[in-house]
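Question (not urgent): is this output format expected?
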Amino acid sequence: MARFFTWVVNNLDAFIGLLLALTVAVLGLTSTVSQEVVNSATLLILALLAQAMLRDRLHRGTAEHQVRQVLTDTRDRLSELVPPMREITGPDGALVRAREAIDSVSMVRVLNGTEVGQALADARRHTDRWNFKGGTGTYTRAVTLPECLEHARRRNATLQFAIEIIDPTDEDVCERYARFRRSLAPDAPGERWTVDRTRKESFATVLAACWHLQRSGLLTIDVRVSSQMTTFRYDLSSSCVIITQENPQTPALRIDRKELYYNRYNIELQYSREQSRRVPIEAAAQVKLDDEPSVEQVRRLFTALGLPLPRSFGDREVADIVGKAIQARNPYE
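Got this back:
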């Protein structure tokens, strides 16, 4: 009821006109008043309607003026804001710099603990190529190369593999690497890192590459040896690049293929291989390797590859290389 009375007060002239029209209509129909009174009342009603229309037009004009004033004030305010907004959203603005900072952080993912092994396993599952650069390639020959080959075999697809490790014939780099590994953590019993062990691990990786190459028609492999050691290990697949260190407790980095630095690392690995010594892996075809290569086969293989074994390596050391190559164990299990 209160809302009705409020409406009547706000529209009093129209309400009076409505009541007057209804009253005159009823009186005219019942012939209670004369025709002159009806005509006069009609004119009064029309006058009230005209007054209501004029009032509405006046209000509309006032409202339009107020709207135009608001738009003008808004435009002026926005014009004042344009220079500061350009500083924020322009090509060199704060917003662009913030976006670049966020992108540079999000393009690199930090992996810890079991995330590292899972990321490497996911990368191996569907890749058709793998580039490795690191120390002696122990994990590569024990896990990466066999599993990538197995996945390629299941897909009936080819696999391109590239390996860059330290040169086992360079005693200086082997000594530096052994000293570096000894500085990381105490060695397990019987597993002390020495020059001879470093050489054996690198020779075993080359032997494993040749052994797998002779047994798979799907594999194309490139082996390089370097006189420069690196404290990082790079594993680049068709989906991502994962950067780790020898210490398994150290967090790893993963960069997906869609990110800018994936291509940067791909170029880095390519140029690093070009500056290393290529092992003529095709020469391995001259020496047929058994499922369990003999000591004589291994000696002839490395001679053909231009990587002669040290004279100090007897049959026992050569047999040790064969075991590391063919029966390689995951060093992190």
